[in-house]
Each structure stands twice: as C-alpha cells, then as structure tokens.
Amino acid sequence: MSAPATTDLVVQRPEGLYCPPGDFYIDPWRPVPRAVITHAHSDHARYGNGHYLAAAPAEGVLRTRLGEIDLQTLPYGERVQHHGVTVSLHPAGHVLGSAQVRLEHGGQVWVASGDYKVVADATCAPFEPVRCDVFITESTFGLPIYRWCPDEEIFADINAWWARNATHGRASVLTCYSFGKAQRVLSGVDPSIGPIIVHGAVAPLNEAYRAAGVSLPDTRMVTEVKDKADLRRCLVVCPPSAAASPWMRRFGDAQTAFASGWMQVRGNRRRGGYDRGFVLSDHADWPGLMGAIEATGAQRVIVTHGSVPVMVRHLRERGLRAEAFDTEYGEDAVEADLQAGQEPPA
Questions:
Q1: Distance CA 281, CA 269 (A)
Q2: What are phi and psi of 343, to 5 degrees?
Q3: What's the rounded Cα separation, in Å, for the pair 75 and 214?
Q4: Greatest Cα-to-Cα distance within the chain, rounded to the nearest angstrom
Q5: For 105-143, how does the pLDDT look when each residue is reduced to its tens digit (9 = 90+)?
Q6: Distance of alpha carbon 159 from alpha carbon 191, whole angstroms
Q7: Residue pair 109/19 in contact by the 8 Å Cβ criterion
Q8: What's the CA gap between 17 and 58, in Å, rounded?
Q9: What DSSP letter does each residue of 107-172 carry, written as one string?
Q10: Distance CA 234, CA 298 (A)
C-alpha cells in the first residue's frame, strides 16, 4: 500500500487509526494518550488509554467494561475542536452508545463508522447517514450472501422455539454476545412465555442499559430461581462459552441456540453443536453496507475488518476510489470469546 497523502485526516499507525492534525486515535488497539471510541466492544474500546472520548449514551457500558477511566462524553451531533479538528459523534445503530466519528479539517470531512447496522432496534439510537468526502467502513458481513430478515420474523421464530420447548418441559438456552446482542434479544422476546435467566456476564450490562433508559424485561440470575419448574420452561440468555461449561448442568435436558449473523451460512450451527441458529446481527448486511456507503456521498471509501478484498473490488467496480486499512479489530467470533470469558473488571 502506498504511503498516505499528508493531507489525510486518518492514517494507519502501529497503535491504531491516527488523526495527524488532531493528534488522537480512533479505537486504538494499543494504549495511547488520547482515544476517540466508537463503541464499547472490547476490540474497539481497550483499557490503558490516557483519555477517552465517546458518545454520551456509551458512558454506562464503557464504565461497566473498563472500570475507572478518564472519560469525556459528547452528545450525538455536538461538536468539539481539538488542535483545529472539529469532531462530532453520530449514531451508528450498532449497540448502545455506538457512534460514527466525523472529522472536519482543512476543507475535508472524514467519517469513521466503527461497527454499524442500518436497521433500527429498541436498544440504541438508529444509524444516521453522515455526508463526507471519505468514509471508513467496516465490512464484517461484506459479502452478497448476507441479507437479513426483518426482526419481527426472527423474534417470532425465537418466541415459537421457546414456547415449544417450555411446553415440553425443556429450558431454551439462547447464546449470544453479552453486550449488545443479549440486550437486543431481551428487548424482542415475549416475557409472558416464562421466566428469563441471564448469565453473570450479561447481568451488569443489562443494568447499564436500563440506567440509560432502555426498557428490558425482568431477568433473574440462576441462583435466584427456587422453583425447579421454572428452570424447565425458562429462556436462558448467556455467552457462547457458557453453553459448554458446568454452569449448563442445572438446566438439564435443554435446547440450545445461537443468535448471530454467522448463522446465515449453512454449517456454522452444526459446527457449533447448537440445536437451532437464529440469523440476528448487530452489523449491516450487504445491502445495508452498500446503502450506507452511498448515503454518505463519499467518493473515497476505506474498508476495514471483514470481507475487505471483496468490498474493495466491488466499490472500485462502482467507480469509487476504494482501498483498505489493516486493523486489529476482531470479527464477531472473536468478540464472542472475549465477552464470554474475559470481561474487563467492573
């Protein structure tokens, strides 16, 4: 890859994506003095930075995951200046507090998307297209095969699966990522079917969501359940690693499922050993990615983590100036492992 022009507002460095005129990083993967954070997933928000700037709705989840940090928050759309760079944060629709980072300097506007999805849900502010000259986009599901069904259909399937299992006296164990996906699942299921039990990795993040004003149904820890009949008709929301741990034994002959965009690919459910797979993603699908890029009006697009070569080639065929940044952001499978077994200290 050729060296970036000196006028570029974001370049690659070993520590992460760097804004030279502003002297700060966006989602750095090594400790730096100043970091702008798009969202609180552990591959984008890491411990050890000197100062953090994030969207105001992200404060609770960031502090839940990273503990005591020097955190400055900014309401969506409000602008601040740092070394002459105007910075504002705009909803990314990914998880609670997720943001796109808009940078303006020297007559240029750049937007770094972080992770995003374009379909609205009840747990976070909906994606907001931001006009720019250069758009840095993720590509986690950047292949044409990825096309999501409406949430109503997915949650109807989840509720029917849970109700059927409850009728047969079996717990329904739905595995998903502790932060973001778990809360989206909880917001969409029908709590009248039975009790809802959450894993210890999910519970503190639920509280952060509730504190931010997100409505979630009542949930319990398994230690709070005294009636064994409840364990045979409950919905259990837990990270993937819990499904293969001794923690699962208390639910007996349970049915297991995984909620993820990766379930779109035939064979992933079988390899994971799940009884069911529900295609539910907090990332944009292929039409969502293409629509989001078009809505920015950007003529230059920089693609990060995911199906990078396919996206770059396709965007070039559409007449855009497309290239790639090499990053250390993880894909969903990596995020699942991190959240399941390596939650940062509260």
A1: 15
A2: -60, 130
A3: 17
A4: 66
A5: 999 999 999 999 999 999 999 999 999 999 999 999 999
A6: 9
A7: no
A8: 20
A9: TEEEEE--S--SS--TTSPPP-----SEEEEEETT-STT--PPPHHHHHHHHHHHHHHHHHTT--E
A10: 48
Question: Can you read off the two tokens belonging to residue 171?
Answer: 């717990």
Task: Find where tokens 């998903």 sit.
Answer: 176
Q: Are 21 and 8 in contact (CB under 8 A)?
A: no
Q: CA neighbours within 13 Å on the CB side: how many for 262?
A: 20
By C-alpha distance, which of 183, 208, 182, 175 is closest to 123? 183
User: Which of 27, 167, 34 lies closest to 100, judged by CA?
Assistant: 27
Give the 3-state secondary structure of residue 206. Answer: helix
User: What is the residue type of 33?
Assistant: P
What are 176-221's pLDDT values in tens digits? 999 999 999 999 999 999 999 999 999 999 999 999 999 999 999 9
CB within 8 A of 130, min separation 6: which ones? 90, 100, 102, 111, 296
CB 78 within 8 A of CB 87: no
* Nearest CA-CA partner of 258 in 164, 174, 155: 174
The residue with tokens 């065929």 is: 317
Overall size of the chain counted in residues: 346
- Among candidate residues 300, 333, 299, 304, the one with its CA nearest the CA of residue 26: 304
Type of residue numbered 132: C
Looking up tokens 């050993």, which residue turns up? 273
Q: Which two tokens stand for residue 102?
A: 């808009």
CB-based contact 139:115 (threshold 8 Å): no
Cα distances (angstroms) measured from residue 63 to each of 32, 183, 219 = 18, 17, 22
Phi, psi values for residue 24, rounded to 5°: -145, 170
Residue 197 corresponds to which amino acid? I
* Statement: residue 4 has pLDDT above 70: no
Under 8 Å between Cβ of 215 and 191: no
Return phi, psi of residue 85, to 5°: -95, 125
CA distance 46 to 7: 28
CB 225 within 8 A of CB 234: yes
